[in-house]
Amino acid sequence: MPPRIDWAAYLRRFHREHPGITEDLLAGARRDDVGTAYTWMTAALAEHPGRVIDVACGSAPLRPLFDKADAYLGVDVSRSELARAQLEQRGPLARASVMALPLSDGFADAVMCSMAIMLFEPIEDGLFEIARVLRSGGTFVTIRPVSWPVLLADARIGTALLRGLHRMPALPQRLTRRAFARMQADAGLTVVADHALRFGYPLETHTDAQRVVDALYLPRVSEQRRRDAVERLARHCGRGMQVPVSIRRTVSVRNRVASGT
Ligand SMILES: C[S@@+](CC[C@H](N)C(=O)[O-])C[C@H]1O[C@@H](n2cnc3c(N)ncnc32)[C@H](O)[C@@H]1O
Q: Taking the domain 7-150+171-202+243-254, which CATH number applies?
């Protein structure tokens, strides 16, 4: 058995070395019908969403989409990610873990969590904390990477990546729909919508290929293999070429809390 991955240490280093890399990829991955995964995510909320907490905000790419919120707060553990968010003049921001949000019970009308729910260990504790800060009837929206849907034409890109890396990108948790819904139910959240879409990131230049590989969590992959994956991917560069970025959006509602409990 290979040694266990120390995900906490890996993620700390990864986000220190690549602040904003998730935004760099996701902001460029689009669909004609919904735009980016970020605009798709915020479309799940009302036009005036009230007080919004962006948990694990990273470089806070959601911030510009919340100009009509009564209040926005981005929370993340990574100093480097928060520094990049600040550079973009996005805020307010707080450095904190999802496991201990600096907010009172029921403070938020909405909690957003983009591309991070699968990183929380233990995820159940993170969900309880998110449910705690949400008011009754408040909305929780997550997006996370998934391997489906893809197009038949995407197989060439997937094969090029796999041949270079020799293994699939890793994540601390692979959440099935059912398991995620059950965990949320235990925390007091009811899933009301759940859907996956394929976005396409343009693969036109060598820099695009580099960005795709840089955005992947690859704790067991050597530098040489990463470089090989970039070169193999770059061979497919061209007008109209895309790397598939499949994303699942889950929308949930905080259950009514009986008064006095
Ligand atoms: C893949 S990035 C997503 C960033 C941003 N939400 C986006 O979509 O571009 C994951 C983020 O989760 C943050 N993170 C990981 N574990 C966390 C925790 N326990 N509490 C708060 N943030 C965490 C990382 O520092 C990183 O910024």
A: 3.40.50.150
